[in-house]
Amino acid sequence: MLVWQGVAKRALGFCQKNLHVCKARYDGVSLTVMNEKTTDLFGNVAQDPQEDTARTDGTSTAKSPTESSATATQTDEQPEDQTLFGHMTASDMPSSPNTAEPIGKGRRTRDRAERMASQQREISVSEFFGKNRHLLGFDSPARALLTTVKEAVDNALDACEEAGILPTIMVKIEKVRDDRFRVTVQDNGPGIVRSQVPKIFGQLLYGSKFHRLKQSRGQQGIGISAAGLHALLSTGKPVKITSRTSPDRPAHYFELLIDLKKNRPQVVKDLVVDWDEPHGTWVELEIEGAYKSGRHSVDEYLYQTSLANPHAEIIYINPKGEFIRFPRVVDQNPPQPLEIRPHPHGVELGMLMKIVKESKARKISGVLQTEFSRITASLAKKICEIAEVKPDKNPRRLSHEEIEAIFK
Q1: How far apart are CA 3 and CA 81, in angstroms?
Q2: Contacts of 70 (CB under 8 A, 6+ apart)
Q3: Alpha carbon distance 86, 84 (integer Å)
């Protein structure tokens, strides 16, 4: 505070010489300078400007006791005050009370802000889950092994059932060393088109089930690619895939890594190979994990999966080399779940706005009938009447208030 009082006193001398009316203020310190009569920081009458000139020339002038006391205090506490700030000019004066700041601080703040801005960048999905693998089920070595097997088996079951094929799944776990295992899963499903293999196994949040309101084992498109991410981060080894769609087409072999910054697959190998299977997919991952027996083991998971899916045949070879077969009990796939439309009570206002804008219907009553379940023509008309919206109005011309009225 004393430092800025000294600055303000110098501003007083400058204003007395150059300005008719000047006001300098910093942290509550205020000076008002007039031509004839002015006051200093402490309410005393200011000295004549000639006295300031005399001080500059080296001559001594008398000071009031209050000024002497203030000057002595400043000298004791801030001895460098005189050389630190020097003589102030008009450019040093604060432009307004709200923008006043210490000399040099504004530039340092701008430089700091620009430096912080240069450090901002987009975070990819792969980077996020690479640092938060526990959110995907890879929070312990034992669970990492179980999650890897589960994701591969779930994909195999979904693919076979959707194609109307009775699943035959082979699971093999080999112990590479104490904390490293090689997991191999093969199915007799419809196979994967060559162009889709890198995206399915090497890109997180890529799949065909997210935009469908249909019951399935997976939905987000993050399962098997997350297992490949764990394999990359724990062992640095690529995911190996062989897939074939029909006996008339060749089998394709891939080795894939994941570009963490871009969340894109990196194809290490892409070859056409000979494979005895007429159709299906074979996947191999090498991961760090732990094999344990008990309720939460891979053995127990496969046993319970066979009970829940009696139409599937599962062949399992554990790290001990033991061969376990869970036979198929029924020779018919379960009926496929049907895709449904959302119920009006199950959507939020923002989702309703999105549906209205993306709908192909030309009338708002048509949107309600085609995009939602259990809404008939009479019910859609009644909803529009309550909302005071014309049933035949173009949905793309609805205002926010009108959509909100329909929502309520």
Answers
A1: 7
A2: 2, 5, 41, 42
A3: 6
Other CB atoms within a 10 A radius of the CB of residue 75 amount to: 13
pTM for the structure as a whole: 0.61
137 sits in the region (left: phi over 0; alpha: psi -120 to 50; else beta) called left
| Chain center to CA of 391 | 40
The angle that helices 364-371 and 349-358 make with each other, rounded to 10 degrees, is: 110
Angstrom distance (rounded) from CA 27 to CA 295? 69
Q: Do 244 and 278 form a contact (C-beta atoms < 8 A)?
A: yes
CA distance linking residue 23 with residue 32, whole number of Å: 5
| Residue that the structure tokens 């094999």 belong to | 291
CA 200 remoteness from chain centre: 21
Contacts of 40 (CB under 8 A, 6+ apart): 9, 12, 31, 46, 67
Task: Kindly give the interhelix angle for 400-407 and 349-358, rounded to the nearest 10 degrees.
Answer: 120
In degrees rounded to 5, what are phi and psi of residue 55? -65, -40
Closest among 97, 63, 74, 67 to 1, alpha carbons compared: 74
Averaged over successive runs of 10 residues, the pLDDT of the chain (408 residues) comes to 56 53 42 44 47 45 45 44 45 50 66 77 66 75 90 90 92 92 94 90 70 60 78 89 93 91 88 92 92 88 94 94 93 83 80 82 83 84 84 82 81
Contact 356, 379 (CB under 8 A): no
Radius of gyration of the chain (CA): 38
